[in-house]
Amino acid sequence: MRNLCHWLFFLTAVLLPAHAHAESLTFRSEVTTNEFTATIGGNLSLPKGKGPFPVVILLHPCGGLDEVVLTTLQSHSGELLSSGFATLILDSYGFRNLTGGKMCSNRLYRSDIRYGIRRDDAFNAMVVLQRHANISKENIFLLGLSDGGSAALLSAKGGPADHFRAIASYYPDCGKLLGGVGYVYRSPTIVFVGEKDDWTPPAECIKSRSPGVVTGAEFEVISYPNAYHGFDQPRPMRKVLGYTMAYDREATVDSRKRYIEFFIKNLTAELKAAPPFSGKAK
Is 206 helix (H, G, I), strand (E, B) or coil? Predict the structure, then answer.
């Protein structure tokens, strides 16, 4: 864990904008599956200027914060920081010794357990961030990739006492989480899927655009015809556990532009009217 933290801070120094301030954040995460209650944490980065800032919690995929995923999340973070958002890259699996693909199949832990742990971590992180002097407690957003994207989608239903201002979910488990009708979301949600994804096939997410599948808050699904699983992760095409992963620059650039616009649109009126967001909401 010490080496992972050193690597995270090294990447922070290299990849974050020069004006960003970074600090370590740790907290006790009480989760529904009690055996996984643990002290976890991550890297909180603040943009240039005077807070309080809106913040986006970033959730990693099932393999944890490996080198490529760290680079990917730092890249998302850099875009958000440049747009005026703080970011928290949250490590759910490193602190629990669940990295290295241990959570990438149902052999050890069912998907509902994995997604539930990550959802609980996200809401527990929200509580901690709401107490931070430089964070706007009413403007906490969530973004997740794959396993983290599934947790983000699950979180759209809201928590016991609160909900995220808006959510972005990358290539989530559509079959498990949107394979029916009557889902009531409290958080505005935008989902990004690749139509060539054979790990988390996008069909149910695409179908969920139909009336009656998701109600409540605003809900969008953006699909990319030529994209595979992990399309925002900068790695060459390869097989992982028999599934195809490949980077797609066009889908990456487009999706980032879209979720930043989506997040800005869903800021509270007070923040939306102030620099650097004034005039950017669509």
Answer: helix
Read off the pLDDT of each residue in 93-97 and give the average, rounded to a whole number: 96
Distances (CA, A) of 130 to 181, 232, 235, 250: 33, 29, 35, 35
The interaxial angle of helices 249-265 and 67-82, nearest 10 deg, is: 50
What's the CATH architecture for 2-272? 3-Layer(aba) Sandwich (3.40)
Q: Is the peptide bond before 47 cis (omega within 30 degrees of 0)?
A: no
pTM: 0.92
Instruction: Confirm if 86 and 130 have CB atoms less than 8 A apart.
Output: no
Tokens encoding 190: 């935008």
Distance CA 162, CA 240 (A): 36
Give 100-117 pLDDT, tens digit per residue.
Answer: 889 998 767 888 899 999
CA dist 4 and 100 (Å) reads 13
Contact 155, 122 (CB under 8 A): yes
Taking residue 123's Cβ as centre, other Cβ atoms within 10 Å add up to 21
Which residues, in sequence order, are CB contacts of 256 under 8 Å at separation 6+?
A: 76, 79, 232
E strand or H helix at 222, and its extent? strand 219-224
Which helix (H) or strand (E) is 10 found in, with range? Answer: helix 2-15
Domain ranges within the chain, ordered by starting residue: 2-272
Q: Which residues of 68-98 are buried (b: 16+ CB within 10 A; e: fewer)?
A: bbbebbbbbbbbbbbbbbbbbbbbbbbbbeb
Q: How many CB atoms lie within 10 A of CB 275?
A: 10
DSSP β-bridge partners for residue 42: 25, 90
User: What are the tens digits of pLDDT across the range 218-239?
Assistant: 999 999 999 999 999 999 999 9
